[in-house]
Amino acid sequence: HGSIVRYQDPSLWSLYRGYLAGGTLALGVISLMWGLLLQRAGRRRVELSLDERLKFESLLSELSASLIHISLNDLDEEIGRGLRRIGEFLKVDRANLHEYVADGAIVRISWAVEGVEPLSRVMEPGQFPWATEQLRGGHIVRFSRLDELPEHAGIDRGSYQKSGTQSDLSLPLGAGDALLGVLSFDAVRAERMWSDELLPRLKLLSEVFAGALER
Known about the structure:
It is a single chain. The chain is of the alpha+beta class. It is built from 5 helices and 5 strands. The protein has a 5-stranded antiparallel sheet with strand order 2-1-5-4-3.
């Protein structure tokens, strides 16, 4: 009792509390700045998405009007112009409109970027048996890599390879016996991912081209 401690080792807190307090403050500032950057990036993505959607809707409206009011003699030329605009908007290598006729399917119009060959107009029967079955059932055919095709789609895989297609997105224009044709987009120079949010827009687009084929 009554003893005096003359030499007591200082605690870590007393030695480094200035550093610890400064470090905590710095971490708080960094976290705040990081949160603001993430918020800004998220807002920017929303703005870009909205701007892209508005541009697509405007393009869709223009295409619909042009294909409705064009004369039948100029229809193919207008379809080709529309495929080019859509292809450039989507940044794909090739955009195609296939038409089903009595003897099978033909490539009515094929647009491609410079350096990529458009599809041949004549399609051999049985080139895409698996894809045709899917499309007649009203399903979209979509793959980013040829390896994604099912094992029993070997004939289709060979046909895609022959045409240089690495990734494909095909939408049916009608279904079953009423299948008028197919609207397809190809990636040739590099593989391409097809986002889910793109599908509803392209379904609207397919209705426009289905109306053109009906004419």
